[in-house]
Structures are given as C-alpha cells and as structure tokens.
From TrEMBL, chain A:
Family: Belongs to the acyl-CoA dehydrogenase family.
InterPro entries from the UniProt entry: Acyl-CoA_Oxase/DH_mid-dom, Acyl-CoA_Oxase/DH_mid-dom_sf, AcylCo_DH-like_C, AcylCo_DH/oxidase_C, AcylCoA_DH/ox_N, AcylCoA_DH/ox_N_sf, AcylCoA_DH/oxidase_NM_dom_sf, Mycobact_Acyl-CoA_DH
Species this chain originates from: Nonomuraea dietziae
Protein name, UniProt field: Alkylation response protein AidB-like acyl-CoA dehydrogenase
Residues covered by the Acyl-CoA oxidase/dehydrogenase middle domain: 123-211
Source species taxonomy: Bacteria, Bacillati, Actinomycetota, Actinomycetes, Streptosporangiales
Molecular-function annotations in GO: flavin adenine dinucleotide binding; oxidoreductase activity, acting on the CH-CH group of donors
From TrEMBL, chain B:
Top-level division of the source organism's lineage: Bacteria
Family the entry assigns: Belongs to the acyl-CoA dehydrogenase family.
The keyword Lipid biosynthesis belongs to this UniProt entry's keyword annotation: no
Organism: Nonomuraea dietziae
Protein name (record): Alkylation response protein AidB-like acyl-CoA dehydrogenase
C-alpha cells in the first residue's frame, strides 16, 4: 500500500497544471444564462483542443486513454485551478459511460466527439411530475412506428435543458415498473422546453413536454425494454466516481480553510473537520478505483453531498450578511441540491441498508 | 499509487482472525495471547535480527482491525508497537501516558512514552471504563532506564494502532446490529425493514467506510521518512476512528434495545471497548483540536 505517484503521473499533473494556469478564464457568467451557457461551451472547446476535456476517453473520441488515477489527478488540478464548472457534465460523465458500454459504434461515432467539444450539450430526462424518488413509476411513453418511436409525456427537473441541444432518458414501451422501459436519446429541437427558475432565479433545469415527438430507431440506446438496467449503470456513475471526483471537494475545503484563517477557533474546528473529510473522500476514492462501482457508491454520494453542504454552510457563517456577493453563495445554493439530486440521500440510505448491509426490504 | 492492502497484509489479518474466531474471550485479558505470540503477531514490528518479522505498521493494520473486531482485551497494541524498543522475551508491555498505564498489572515491561524509558512502577487500580482494559494510576518507583528509539514514533504508532482497533470494533458492532435487525421481529416484520433503523445503520456504515482510509494513511505516514505531516494524519485518524466507533456503539445499543443494555448480552464488551480505546492516547475531541492547530496554527 502506498500513496506515491509515478514519474509519468507527476509529469501529467505538471502538464495539466501548467496548461490550466495559462488558460483558465476569469469567472464566467452562470451557465444557466444564455450568455454564460455559450461562454462555458467555448471553454469546453478550448479544453478539447488541448485534449483535456475527456482525458479518460480513448483517443479516437478526443481523449487520452488516461488511467483512473490520471483522471483523478486531472480533476484535482482542474478544481484547484478555479476553472469553470463543466456545462457538458451530464453528457460526458453520465451518458458517455453508458454509450461506451451499450452504444453501437455508429452511436458512439455520432455523439461522443461532438459531446467532448460541447458541440452538443446533453440534458438528462429522468424525473417526471409523479416519478421522482420512485423512478420506476414513470409514465412517459415511446410508441413504435415505422422506422422509429413517438415520444409522449412529461419530464421535469431536467438539468441544463433550458439551453441544451439533446436529452436522454427512460420511456415506457411496455410492461410496468422496471420492466418494459427503453433508453432513448433525442434532439431537443422538437421538444417543448419550459425553463424552470431555480432558487437563484436562473433556469438551471426545465420541464420537457413530448407530444408525439418522433425519434428514429438509431436513437434507442441498447435493446428496447432494457432501459432500467442501462439507466442504473448511468445513475451509479452519477452517484459515484465520475460525477463527483474528490478534487472538487478538496479544492473547496482548501478555499474554506483560507477563508477561516482569522476566524474563531470554533469555526476553524469546523473547517479543519471539512478538510479532513475531503481528504478521507480522496483516500477512499484512491482505494476504490480498482473495484467495481456498485451499491457502495451510495455511501460516497451521501458523504460528499453532506460534506459539500457543511462546507458551504460554514462559508455562509463566516461571511455573514453580504455572503451573496461572493461565489460561496452560488456554491451554497448548489450544495443544497446535493442531497436531493442523483437519488435523494434517503434513497441512498435505503440502498446502503439493503444492498450493502443486507437488511430486508 | 496503490492504496489497497497487499495479499500478504490481508493473509496476516486472516490468520489472526482465524485464531481469534470463537476462541477469544473478551472477559479474559490474556485470552489468545499465546496463540498470537506463536503467529509472530506481537513481534511483527521488531527487526528480523531481534527475532521479529521486520514489518511496518501498515502491514499489521488489517490484523489490528481483527483484534478490535474480536474485542480482544489486554495490552495488544502496546505490546505490538513497543516490540522494537523492548528487550527480547518480553511478553506484555504497558505504556505510561500522563500518569496512567492500561493493564500495567499484566505487563512485564512498563514504558514511559516520554523517554521512552523502562520504568519500575507501583500501580494503583483505577475504576475501569472497560473490563477488558484496566487502567492503573502509576507511581514511578525507581530509576528509569532509557530505551533506544524515538518516543514520538512510539506514541504515534500506539495511537494509530488504537485507531485501527477502533475501526475493527466499529465494524463488528455494525455487523452484530445488522444481524440483530434482520432477526428481531416486531409489528410482524424484522425491525431492519423499518427505515428509521435502516438509515441509522447506513450512517454507521458510512462513518466506518470513510474513517478507515484516514487510519490507513496515518499508518503509512508514521513509518515514512519524509511524510509531510505525520502528527496531523495521526490525529485525523484517531479522531475519525473514535467518532465512527462511538456512533457504531450508540447505534448498536439503540438497535438492540433493552437486551443490549443488559449484562446478559456480550455486546457490552464491544460497547466498553469503544469507551476505553476512544479515551486512550487522546480522545477524539483532543485530536480534533490538534488537527485544527496543525491546519491553522495553535
């Protein structure tokens, strides 16, 4: 057991750090405004030009075939540099792993390269008004027609959908509950999008209305009816390693320590605890990269979402009444969503209890 | 970078587990001592030329977790970490910290960690938190004899070894609570089917899952020449392991209900071990303060 990086890994870290130091833009407008969305897309294209937007992907799709450790190194440097949040996040971290596993070569060729350059930006379409934590209760349908499918129904809380070009989600094609669901990719061009203002007033997510929207057969990911199994592979990515690398929490914790430098010891205690917890998450991830992502990612999801919330709540306590003038407030609002999205922490605790500990349903 | 245990490290732990399973009596402070001695466990950290195995602390961390899992009583960690300092042939060691030495009555060597030095002592028993770890108030009754080696390293290893045991205690408390929740029926269902119970146990699993890597890092740091901040790592490990074990103990008691509160169920040995080990070599609260001072300056 050791925590030593190889010379090649150290060289990769240095390259990433140097490139970011030279290229990271000053603060961009919120990605949930039209202007900010486009600025974030332009940033993704610059990353892609340096082959840094999707380092863990194979070369043919714009990556470098980086190892999991190298990907973690990239993430540490990315967040430490103060680089912008990733507008392509839902695509590159959630859909892409599913495309690599279940997509046909022509689907991979059609979507991955464009996604890596943020030419296409993907929104997820899981939740429905009556299917949130109980995702299997969803009722949006895909009806078979010649050459494709007609989509009907309503999806909601679709992150990035206000400005994104594409979406992915589950539609019922037969059966009930987990059976007979189909994983469908779609262009947002033909979908009625109703942006929904979030707590900060910007349309970070949207409602999607499908009124017989046609998608060709080539837009079905995997076999029709196998959508639940395929989607679970994606949500496990969302809860686990791929969406929430330790680097971002470590960077936040280190900024928090700087913010608390002259604070009362009672507040410094909370900051020091956050730093240790961020380090624990990092170490845990280093230990886990060799293993399979499974139900244990639920433990990580509860841990990082509560850590992120504690860190930003402490920043609010440190900053006082004018906290909203700092980026900490935007971070605080976002951290409040952490225990809700990607499967609420209550659902995660059920998964831990039932699938990790073996308690009865 | 390989932050996983090697097959040798895990095999050593499996051998310890095999010895302790069904045999370790948590009420007998010398239980299984002979068997673990024969396995080379207590001499694991001593150099090979002194009859030891020449291992590093990280090599024995999984085995130490097993001694915690079994609630093995007595001066297990102390004897293990003092082996590189002690003359050959010493069976049990007690460490003297701020006037208190655990299990001093069983030790043929008492080491004052500020030396380190061997000290002749007059021990007076104090009321124990844990029947498996008996504290003694100690009066030094003769000339201390300086031992070779670093006092700093001895205390760090004792602290991390104790943290590793706490992780093991917490894992066993969780396993027993899960087992009880699967079998105890109320309202016509196993109590483990209720979310109020499930979520408490899930929180214990999370606390243990994220405390253990801090203990593993600290074990690496104490034996590494150029570790940047070994004391901070040690304190983070002890604090997190102590808090995880404390949560595991409180939850175990709550899940077991009244039967857990009795002297009739042996759960009490594991509960008490979280108290004694939690207090040994600095409480979680003390180590949290040390971490804060290391991060921000005293």
């Amino acid at each position: 057991m050791d925590l030593d990086f190889t010379p090649a890994e150290q060289a990769f870290r240095a390259e990433v750090r140097d490139w970011l130091a030279a290229h990271v833009p000053s603060r961009l407008p919120s990605m949930d405004t039209r202007e900010g969305f486009e600025a974030h897309r332009a940033w993704e294209a610059r990353l892609a030009d340096a082959r840094l937007s999707v380092v863990s992907w194979p070369e043919e799709h714009g990556g470098r075939s980086a190892s999991p450790i190298e990907w973690l190194i990239f993430e540490e440097e990315y967040w430490a540099s103060g680089a912008p949040a990733r507008v392509s996040q839902n695509g590159i971290f959630l859909l892409a792993p599913t495309l690599f596993t279940f997509g046909t070569p022509s689907q991979q060729a059609a979507f991955l390269g464009r996604m890596a350059r943020a030419e296409d930006v993907w929104a997820q379409a899981w939740s429905e008004p009556e299917a949130g934590s109980d995702l299997a209760a969803l009722s949006s349908r895909a009806v078979k027609v010649e050459g494709g499918w007609l989509l009907h129904g309503r999806k909601t809380w679709s992150s990035r959908a206000a400005f994104a070009s594409h979406g992915f989600g589950l539609f019922r094609t037969s059966g009930s509950r987990h059976h007979g669901l189909t994983y469908v990719l779609f262009s947002l061009e033909d979908v009625a999008v109703r942006p929904i203002a979030q707590l900060d007033g910007t349309p970070g997510f949207a409602e999607l209305l499908f009124d017989g929207v046609f998608v060709p057969d080539a837009m079905v990911l995997g076999e029709p009816g196998q959508g639940w199994k395929i989607a679970m592979a994606t949500t496990s990515s969302e809860r686990g390693l791929t969406l929430r690398s330790p680097g971002r929490f470590l960077a936040t914790a280190e900024r928090l320590v700087a913010l608390a430098r002259t604070a009362d010891p009672a507040l410094q205690d909370r900051a020091a605890r956050c730093l240790v917890d961020a380090e624990a998450y990092r170490l845990h991830t280093f230990g886990a990269v060799k293993g399979e992502l499974g139900a244990t990612t639920s433990m990580g999801k509860v841990f990082w979402s509560e850590l992120d919330l504690r860190m930003h709540a402490l920043a609010m306590d440190l900053l006082g009444p004018c906290a909203a003038e700092t980026p900490w407030f935007d971070g605080y609002l976002f951290s409040l969503a952490g225990p809700i999205y990607a499967g609420t922490n209550e659902i995660q605790r059920n998964i831990i209890a039932e699938r990790v500990l073996g308690l009865p349903r | 970078m390989n932050f996983s245990f090697t097959s040798e490290q895990l095999a050593f732990a499996a051998a310890v587990r095999e010895v302790l399973r069904d045999r370790c009596d948590p009420a007998d402070r010398v239980s299984c001592w002979k068997e673990l001695t024969e396995l080379g466990f207590f001499a694991a950290l001593a150099p090979e030329e002194a009859g030891g195995l020449g291992l590093s602390l990280i090599d024995v961390v999984p085995a130490l977790e097993e001694t915690g899992r079994a609630a093995m009583p007595g001066p297990v960690v102390e004897t293990l970490v003092a082996a590189p300092y002690a003359p050959q042939g010493v069976t049990r060691v007690s460490l003297l910290v701020e006037g208190v030495a655990l299990d001093a009555d069983l030790a043929d060597l008492v080491v004052d960690v500020t030396g380190p030095s061997a000290v002749p002592v007059r021990p007076e028993p104090r009321r124990a938190l844990d029947p498996g770890r008996q504290p003694y108030g100690v009066t030094v009754a003769g000339e201390p004899e300086r031992l070779p080696g670093s006092a700093e390293a001895l205390l760090r290893r004792a602290t991390v070894g104790t943290a590793a045991q706490l992780v093991g205690v917490a894992r066993q408390l969780l396993a027993r609570s899960v087992e009880y929740a699967r079998t105890r029926t109320q309202f016509g269902r196993p109590i483990g089917a209720f979310q109020a119970v499930k979520h408490q146990l899930a929180d214990v699993a999370i606390a243990v899952e994220f405390a253990a890597p801090l203990v593993h890092r600290a074990a690496l740091s104490v034996d590494e020449q150029d570790a940047p901040r070994p004391d901070r790592d040690v304190s983070a490990a002890k604090a997190a392991a102590g808090e995880a074990a404390s949560l595991a103990a409180r939850t175990a008691l709550q899940v077991h209900g009244a039967i857990g509160y009795t002297g009739e169920l042996d759960l009490r040995f594991w509960l008490a071990r979280t108290w004694s080990l939690g207090a040994a070599y600095g409480t979680s609260a003390e180590h949290r303060i040390r971490v804060r001072e290391a991060v921000f300056g005293a």
